[in-house]
Amino acid sequence: MTAYKDLSKNELKALKKELTKKFEDVKAKGLKLDMSRGKPSTEQLNLSMGMMDVLTSSSDLVCEEGVDCRNYGVLDGIKEAKQLLADMMEVPKDNIVIFGNSSLNVMYDTVARSMIHGVMGSTPWCKLDKVKFLCPVPGYDRHFAITEHFGIEMINIPMTPTGPDMDMVEELVSTDPAVKGIWCVPKYSNPQGITYSDETVHRFAKLNPAAEDFRIYWDNAYGIHHLYEDKQDYLIEILMECKKEGHPDMVYKFSSTSKISFPGSGIAAIAASDANLKEIREQMKIQTIGHDKLNQLRHARFFKDIHGMVKHMKKHADIMRPKFDTVLASLEKELGGLEIGSWLAPRGGYFISFDSMDGCAKAIVAKAKEAGLVMTNAGATYPYGKDPHDSNIRIAPSYPTLDEIKLAMEVFTLSVKLVSIDKLLAKAE
Ligand code: PMP
């Protein structure tokens, strides 16, 4: 395989002609394909349909606290749901509060509370001239949307194969009191599928923030979302690590069962120190008399315990693995050795991250759209939608069928090749 950069202008032009013909043929098929969002497929949703049967009109609906789950009561989650999610999040069950169906909602509330009321008695962020968040990039667009919504300045921190650039994180966190938080997806990150190394987690726990109200927003959305039985990443548990380092309050940990049971109707939770949770419960009791306990009970009875959940995740993996393998095989076969793009092979999570040559991502996404393939907007993986290199594209293979993925990857790889050739030809002008 010859790298495109080593081809002559005439060779590139000839290749362009050949690939354009192929592209037009695919375009003529009038495809409608979508690899834009990390949604579970219908087949995956069907795995949890048993949950619909665990509670019936004749079920005993009393939870371990002795409360009728149909009624008011039990503010921060029923015991059986707390145990299940605590095991899933690898924390003691007293360090967890259960919310509604969305962890993103909890993250939003956490930032909103800090803006309006401050964190444990510190000045509310809305009264400060400047509030900053560190944003490992590429990252999750909806995290960045929350901080942008509140006018928080976002600072890009480059991701490395072991997590965010910790030299930069340590420098900014320890010297700038305006830095109040950092968004982290520490396991099978969105979009790269990177898991933070032991050293990275240790360095997080050892941070010495200039701001007393600095918090790590540890969004472990993909903690048990492995793809392979024999190749799994391991992540050190951050709450305990921060406690050991004498910073028990420095982290909020978020998770949900969105991609375990149902994204629209799962359960979400926050895990944190006693002091943080005390403050969270104070706000919570004003917001609600309690979240959906029937759904909590349904989850607890369906999965039974963490072993049930882990077994369930293997069924998800059996559906997801061939899709990831297909995307990776196509990238390797079509683009390997051409030096017009790079990617990582994650061991879990929901995404594959592709990096094109600089200045090509927007054009590739637009080109793919011409042939009926919708990808996540280029730039979405960066704060303010601005990828300084215009190179990152997130591939989400979960929702389409295998056949659709094969077609989608044909469109995608052709788009990458054509846009890269144009870029190289323009450079050669
Ligand atoms: N965090 C990350 C990193 C995600 O990728 C997603 C879903 N795409 C969420 C949170 C959303 O979680 P929830 O459904 O619990 O709001």
UniProtKB/TrEMBL annotation:
<dbReference type="InterPro" id="IPR015422">
    <property type="entry name" value="PyrdxlP-dep_Trfase_small"/>
</dbReference>
<keyword id="KW-0032">Aminotransferase</keyword>
<protein>
    <submittedName>
        <fullName>Aminotransferase</fullName>
    </submittedName>
</protein>
<dbReference type="InterPro" id="IPR015421">
    <property type="entry name" value="PyrdxlP-dep_Trfase_major"/>
</dbReference>
<dbReference type="InterPro" id="IPR024551">
    <property type="entry name" value="AspAT_Ic"/>
</dbReference>
<dbReference type="Pfam" id="PF12897">
    <property type="entry name" value="Asp_aminotransf"/>
</dbReference>
<keyword id="KW-0808">Transferase</keyword>
<dbReference type="InterPro" id="IPR015424">
    <property type="entry name" value="PyrdxlP-dep_Trfase"/>
</dbReference>
<dbReference type="GO" id="GO:0008483">
    <property type="term" value="F:transaminase activity"/>
</dbReference>
